[in-house]
Design brief:
By secondary structure, this protein is of the alpha/beta class. 45% of the residues lie in helices and 13% in strands. It is built from 14 helices and 10 strands. The strands form 2 sheets. An 8-stranded parallel barrel has the order 1-2-3-6-7-8-9-10, surrounded by 7 helices. Strands 4-5 form a two-stranded antiparallel sheet. Strand 2, helix 6 and strand 3 form a beta-alpha-beta unit. Helix 11 packs across helix 12. The two termini are 28 Å apart. InterPro entries: Aldolase_TIM, DeoC/FbaB/LacD_aldolase, DeoC/FbaB_aldolase, FbaB-like.
């Protein structure tokens, strides 16, 4: 596999890792139409578990079939496809090796009543990821939740286990629960903090939501104001999140978030690019659109990250 100078520079930030982890990170960064650019677009499809099948797929019925999503990632030329154990067990037997896969190990569900103590159940294992030929494992933590510390201990152990067999970790770090307000879940100080926590846990790729200009913590507001940290634009807020991940030494991708119009999705991609982010991990804004429309949207996002739009 050829490794571009840009990807070699990114991998130099992971020099403590073993060759297996670095090789698989290189696979993620060298795959698809953005391969070699240092940018990534990943298709994550765990919404059937998180929100229920009808809420996720009824608008575009092809989405009930795990092959639909896996093939969409392949046909769009994406960097990777992330999915739960059950979905990958259906599709990887025929579509193995055509796009890097990420086994998402833990999940919540909308039937749960957990609020302040938001948590997720573990569905899969590092062994499952190896068995299915995955390039990485994925995991979600909820910083701020009353269960957050236990989640961090769970993923710290899983990261160690995955590293030992040469698998990197993609860590969803979503502030939620505890005393965090709804606005605080996407506040710039809280999102940057969540990204920093993921970095400290040893995650190789960090996934966070795009932050708003709201500041949740009074103590943080004093520092943001005193240091005159620029957060007025989305690109500036992306740059602050990147800075919070060891001064940009970690790969950070940003969630596509709730379903939205095409112009908003593309504006988000431009802000991620202009703020120095490594890309998008965008699910429902793709698979809830008709297939051809989704492919067109992904094509434009890729072109934005290539600097062509």
């Amino acid at each position: 596999m050829r490794i571009s100078p840009r990807v070699q520079k990114i991998l130099s930030n992971y020099d403590s890792e073993n060759p297996g982890v670095k090789a698989r990170l290189a696979q993620l960064l060298m795959n698809g139409r953005l391969g070699g650019s240092g940018k990534m677009v990943i298709l994550p499809v765990d919404q059937g578990i998180e929100h229920g099948p009808a809420r996720s797929f009824a608008i575009n019925p092809g989405g009930y079939d795990p092959f639909y999503h896996h093939q969409l990632a392949i046909d769009a030329g994406l960097s990777a496809y992330a999915a739960p154990l059950g979905q990958l067990e259906v599709s990887t037997g025929k579509l193995y090796g055509q796009v890097p896969t990420i086994l998402k190990l833990n999940h919540s569900n909308s039937l749960s009543r957990l609020k302040e103590d938001a948590d997720q159940a573990i569905f899969g294992s590092v062994e499952d990821a190896l068995r299915l030929g995955c390039t990485a494992i994925g995991f979600t933590i909820y910083p701020g939740s009353d269960q957050g510390l236990e989640q961090m201990e769970e993923i710290a152990e899983l990261i160690r286990e995955a590293k030992a067999v040469g698998l990197p970790t993609v860590l969803w770090s979503y502030p939620r629960g505890g005393n965090i307000t709804k606005d605080g879940e996407t506040a710039i100080d809280v999102v940057a903090y969540a990204a920093h926590l993921a970095s400290q846990l040893g995650a190789h790729v960090i996934k966070v939501k795009l932050p708003s200009a709201f500041i949740e913590q009074k103590e943080a507001k004093k520092e943001f104001d005193g240091a005159k940290i620029a957060i007025g634009t989305q690109a500036e807020r992306v740059a602050e999140v990147m800075r919070s991940c060891f001064a940009g030494r970690r790969i950070v991708v940003f969630s596509g978030g709730a379903a939205k119009d095409t112009a908003s999705v593309l504006d988000d991609a431009r802000a991620i690019r202009d703020g120095g982010g490594n890309g998008s991990i965008i699910g429902r804004n793709c698979f809830r659109r008709p297939r051809e429309e989704a492919l067109e949207l992904l094509d434009t996002i890729i072109r934005i990250f290539q600097g062509k739009e």
